[in-house]
Amino acid sequence: MSSDIGSRHIDWSKFGMVYAGAQKNLGAAGVVVIIVKKSLLGLEASDTPFLFNWKKQANGPDGFWNTPATYPVYITGLNVAHMNK
């Protein structure tokens, strides 16, 4: 979804999970956007690594299990806020 997200209207009901690199349309390199339907949370295999366990990610300590690069996340947030005006 890296080439499409942020560039046009998207019917989100057609997707269960979306993965996009932010560097093309949303923000700075190093940021990844993952959008997962709530109905899919908790359906992963029992041996799924915790970084790919979306339920743990959604319910984890403030949603983060790793230390993200804060400046690229900040820049991406500014850009998305501007796009939503």
Strand order of the largest sheet: 1-2
What's the story with the biggest beta sheet? 2 strands, antiparallel
User: Taking all residues together, what is the mean pLDDT?
Assistant: 85
Please give the share of residues in helix.
Answer: 10-25%
Determine the N-to-C terminus distance.
Answer: 22 Å
- Secondary-structure content class: alpha+beta
What does the overall shape look like? globular
Q: Count of helices? A: 2
Query: What is the gyration radius calculated from CA atoms?
Result: 14 Å
The count of DSSP E runs of length 2 or more, i.e. the number of strands, is 2
Please state roughly what percent of the residues sit in beta strands, choosing from under 5%, 5-15%, 15-25%, 25-35%, 35-45% or over 45%: 5-15%
Oligomer: single chain
Secondary-structure element sequence?
A: EEHH
Number of domains: 1
Which ranges are low-confidence, i.e. pLDDT below 50, for 5 or more consecutive residues?
Answer: none
